[in-house]
Each structure stands twice: as structure tokens, then as C-alpha cells.
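I hope you will forgive my troubling you with a question about protein structure. I set the record out below, with my sincere thanks for your time.
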Amino acid sequence: MDSDTNKEIVEIKRDIRELRAGQDAEFQHNRKKYEELLDEAIDEQRTARVLLEIDGFQSAAEIERKLKIPHKTCWRKFDRLLSKNVIFPTEDSKQKSPVYQQSRWFKQLRLEQYVKNMNLKDNHKEENNVSEDTT
């Protein structure tokens, strides 16, 4: 590799680092917006469970089996998360089943705990509704 090509590669890598730093700052500045996006995307506990299982390695079919969610329901959850840009498909697939990854903003803002807390709130609501129904 000649020195001009090497210099170009170094400049491109620097530009990418700068873009990412700017993007990370934007994520932090607009954290509330991303939390609201999650609130819209996560319509129920199963959607949260699907999102938390997505790791860029497991296929959609593997997640479906692991969570024991009915096939159509699970795929609706993937579609919902995709439509809200919370996840995206990777180039990989396993046995013709797509592999998904969480969006960069989700990971950068470390929103797993936010989703877990949201999920707990939903569980408490469901439990309270059940207790009210039985009383």
C-alpha cells in the first residue's frame, strides 16, 4: 500500500471517529426523544422481551423459540421495532432467518435498563389489573 493510500485511510478513519462523536453528543442531547420513541415502539411486555434478546448473533427464529412467543406475534414485534428504527437487520442470517441488531442510539444511550424498568412498570400494572378484577 502506498503512502498516499495510507494517509487517505487514516483521514477517513478520523472523519468516522468525528462523525460518531458528533452523533453520540446528539444522542445524549436528545435522550428524552429516544426514550419517547421506545415508549411508542414497546406496546407490551413481549415487545420489550424481544428487544432485550436482540444481540446481533441470534436469529429471529432462535429468539422466537427462546421466548416461547407464537410465531406471528413474535414477527409482529420484530416488524414494530424495525418500523420505529429501534433495530435493524444485519447482513447475516441463520437458516434463512434474519439476524437483528439494536440501533446504535439504543446501545450508546444504554437504554436496556430503561426498557427493563418500563417492563417492570407494565408488569405491576398487569398485576394490579388482575387484583382489581378478582376483588
